[in-house]
Amino acid sequence: MGPRARIPRDLPRHDAAAGHCRAGPRDHRGSRSVDRHGSPCAGGDAMKPISQRPRSSLVGIFLLAAAAGTLLFFLLVPTWDHPWDPIESRDWGWRGIAMNTFTSARTRNDPINIVPAATTPFPDTGMSASEVYENVKVLGDLDSGQFDYLMQSMTEWVAPDQGCGYCHGDGGNFASDDLYTKKVARRMLEMVRDINANARHVGQTGVTCYTCHRGNNVPQKTWYEGAEPKPPMGGIVGKPPPWNRTAKNMRDFFPRAPFENYLLDDKPISGAQARTVSGETTDLADLENIYILMMQMSEGMGVNCNFCHNTRAFADWSQSTPKRINAWYGIRMVRGINNDYLTGLQGLFPPHRLGPLGDVAKVDCATCHNGMSRPLGGAPMAAGYEGLLGPKGDRPIRRATAFETRKAHQAAITEPGVDERGVVQAGE
């Protein structure tokens, strides 16, 4: 036997321990190198089972699948604004200071924000409603023709499907007070008359039942008090999460503390600085609640912050727009509605009309505005309805929205705003 042949170094060598070969250079024809047994040298990760592939390739596949799933979610699930529904911009101030407001044409053209066609008023009869009908406690001095016209309109505004029987029942006894809906409607008439006569920011447009109800028995944009959140299971912050994780929309997702503090209670809407001049610190929970309230007001009115504020100095009244004064009065009007008219009706409503804590539905800015800076585009809703124009006087809405002259100085200190003459003092 002759001497053993030596394998050239440029040929592939099979690595039995690793389970693959190290390929040598290709020949002049570009053929694949072979191992010492004559088998092609496969090499690379493509021929390996998944369990033997590098971790980096598996991570890449996972990230690619996650990115595709995320893209599909955001394309299919949320209701995005479409390109054919452009956002309109309007400049409120001097050029270059970014005092722009943005509105949506889709919100403006939403059927719920379209003013319903007015019906032909009934002619006067020369007799008051109390002379023609029994048990008329609110509009007894109104002409019976105007009274009938208003009753017909209220039916279309609040109960178009149920008709007159929604408040009066099907027995034909219109004088009966058996149904809770009639008692509530009577109190709501007093509220509307009060708003039209004494709410300063309503102006000459006025409101009707339709302003809030929009053809529904109960206005769609209302809120109830929220239950106290359960303590957290652990963590170092110690603050229970206030968010409503079972909400079906973003409006209901936010906690109810901002509404309870500022639209039901009269807690001052101030303290936007972490530390005041006096050295007292501000509770971060209050700042969060104020921010949430402002966001809810912005969404409810369909405007951004610049509609009322100058974003370079949110707290400075001298740099704010005149709309901020209207908002100041509007907040106090909402407080008056919730406290003087709605909470007092809690005992009249059946359980299915109450919230989880047994409280009555309450209002906020979105209840009337429904995504527009002026409800129903500022249409003069109360025009032609004499019965909805109540007498002026010191009534709950007025007490909730305007200072008496003799109290202006004290009010500007305890809860800054504007005085009886409309002069800016300081404030929210």
Task: Characterise this structure.
The chain has 428 residues and is mainly alpha-helical. The chain has helices at 55-76, 105-108, 129-132, 144-158, 165-168, 180-198, 209-213, 250-253, 257-264, 284-301, 323-342, 365-369, 396-401, 408-414; strands spanning 13-15, 20-22, 87-91, 100-104. It has three domains: 82-109, no CATH class; 115-219 and 381-392, Photosynthetic Reaction Center, subunit C, domain 2, CATH 1.10.468; 222-369 and 395-428, Photosynthetic Reaction Center, subunit C, domain 2 (Orthogonal Bundle), CATH 1.10.468. Helix 9 packs across helix 10 (284-301). It is globular.
How many separate domains make up the residues? 3
Order of helix and strand elements from N to C terminus: EEHEEHHHHHHHHHHHHH
Q: How would you characterize the largest beta sheet? A: 2 strands, antiparallel
Beta-strand content: under 5%
Number of separate helices: 14
Please state the second-level CATH architecture of the largest domain: Orthogonal Bundle
Q: What Rg is obtained from the alpha carbons, in whole angstroms? A: 35 Å
Strand line-up in the sheet with most strands: 1-2
**Global outline:** globular
